[in-house]
Specification:
By secondary structure, this protein is of the alpha+beta class. About 35% of the residues lie in helices and about 10% in strands. The protein has helices at about 5-30, 35-45, 60-65, 80-90, 125-130, 150, 180, 205-215, 225, 250-255, and strands spanning about 100-105, 160, 165-170, 190, 200, 235, 240, 260-265. It has a two-stranded antiparallel sheet. Strands 2-3 form a two-stranded antiparallel ribbon. A two-stranded antiparallel ribbon has the order 5-8. The longest helix has 28 residues, at about 5-30. The mean pLDDT is about 85.
Length: about 280
């Protein structure tokens, strides 16, 4: 190929590049989708965890949903009240009350309280162990302590303690729900950060069987329900449940529970003074 041919080919490619570039530039402007500046502002206000705890696919999805009116301004559990306030300001709305919640493992069935049915020798995964006839523990509702929750937590907020049970650090927990979603026993739930009284049991079997499998399980005796002065605790499906909106942390239920399935630091309880 001679020099003139090379020059002609190069010139042709250059012209074609300019033409295609101009066409793409025109198309990008002609068919550009305008982005509401509030979407950008909300996206910058949220933490950027992309955890999906808000119910939307990442922070971008949440930001778009807020601007469209499909998601509440306080819908980011990771950001909590401060982020809710900023998003509300962007949207010109009231943030409302945002109660900080943290994950809580509802189980105290460690080896001393709840023995195993068989020795498990497999992957360090609760999901895998649960496939073997519900896992090794006698209590089929309790924490197996194999760390599936630890593996998925993006905030290093949950670990296996020295008793072999999962334990949440409330100061690090952002209520992203990752541990709740992965747990095959549904033994982790969200509770208000300031809640002092907790039912530390997830067993829904009837009393005699529960007592046989775990020393500290709720036996659905109803003593807590009968003694609560605020109607804040009831036995539902063989398990005590606390209504956190009614609970005053008086901890009468903690004192009365015969198996100590209800936990609370009695030194921190609310002291009620009768008028």
């Amino acid at each position: 190929m001679d020099t003139n041919s090379l020059i002609l080919a190069g010139t042709s490619l250059g012209v074609m590049g300019l033409v295609f570039g101009a066409a793409l530039s025109f198309a990008s402007k002609k068919f550009a989708v305008e982005v509401d500046p509030r979407v950008i502002a909300v996206r910058e206000a949220v933490p950027g965890a992309n955890c999906g705890a808000c119910g939307y696919p990442g922070c971008d999805g949440f930001s778009n949903a807020v601007v469209k009116g499909l998601a509440p301004v306080n819908g980011c559990p990771v950001g909590g009240a401060p982020v809710a306030a900023r998003v509300a300001q962007i949207m010109g709305l009231e943030a409302g009350n945002t109660v900080k919640k943290v994950a809580k493992v509802k189980c105290e069935g460690h080896e001393e309280n709840c023995s195993n049915r068989f020795d498990y020798d497999g992957f360090d995964s609760c999901v895998a162990a649960n496939m073997l006839n519900g896992g090794p523990k006698k209590c089929l509702y309790g924490c197996m302590g194999l760390g599936s929750c630890v593996q998925v937590c993006p905030f290093d907020a949950i670990h296996i303690n020295d008793k072999g049970l999962a334990e949440v650090d409330p100061e690090k927990c952002t209520s992203c729900n990752k541990c709740i979603e992965i747990c095959p026993k549904a033994v982790i739930s969200l509770v208000p950060y300031e809640q002092l009284t907790i039912v530390a049991c997830n067993n829904k079997d009837k009393g005699p069987l529960v007592k046989k499998n775990c020393n500290v399980a709720c036996i659905a005796c109803g003593i807590c329900e009968k003694n609560c002065p605020h109607d804040a605790i009831h036995v539902v499906n063989n398990l005590a449940e606390i209504d956190y909106e009614k609970c005053t942390n008086c901890m009468v239920c903690v004192e009365k529970c015969p198996t100590k399935a209800i936990q609370g630091n009695l030194e921190l309880r609310t002291v009620e003074i009768n008028a």
